[in-house]
Amino acid sequence: MSKPTIAVIGGTGAEGSGLALRWAAAGYPVIIGSRSAEKAEATVAELSALLPAAAPALQGMANPDAAAAAATIVLSVPYSAQQNTLVDIAEQCRGKVVISVVVPLQPPKVSTVWQPAGGSAAQEAQTQLQAVLGDDVQVVAAFQNISATHLKDLSWQPDCDVLVTGDAKAGKQTAIELAQAAGFFGIDAGPLANSSVVEGFTAILIGINIRHKVKGSGIQITGIPR
After folding, report:
1. Contact of 125 with 98, CB cutoff 8 Å
2. Average pLDDT, the chain
3. Which CA distances in Å does 66 have to 47, 59, 72?
């Protein structure tokens, strides 16, 4: 059975492009989305050189076109760009799962946890999309605590877990399956309200990286059979 198409909105960044590469290598059709179609296509050229010959061809499109062409949408943009990006793609999210990878960080203290007014970036995304689409969209949060350092090395075996939060079981299952496809272990971490804690872990991990002079610290949950 063919795999559903994934659009990675903000897929030219380190995190988005790394995840896109790993999903394409796992056999998913992937579209790189960007504000500029030309920038998206340049990233496609870069990533295509890293893929096995049997992998589906990557595509690059402007964000609205990428979102329209996909079954699942992954939002991987800076928090400062989230609101405007969602304005551009809201209608294209109708009836789909939207996976937020966005982390609200407040420079210059990016290693200090900061929560936006809406509770979390993912909760704000859900509120914004539901204002347009009602309940005809499933927003989940995942992949916030994954370092981009090794994502483009397809020989790397991930040793950290992906915490998935959301209010719809089907949407969370989609994110868990994509975590597995990228080589991670996905864990249902409860409702979307819990995304504020998961997003906050990213700032903590940044601080750990700085203090311990490492680049790829992550989270692993013990006690769950693998």
Report:
1. yes
2. 97
3. 17, 9, 10
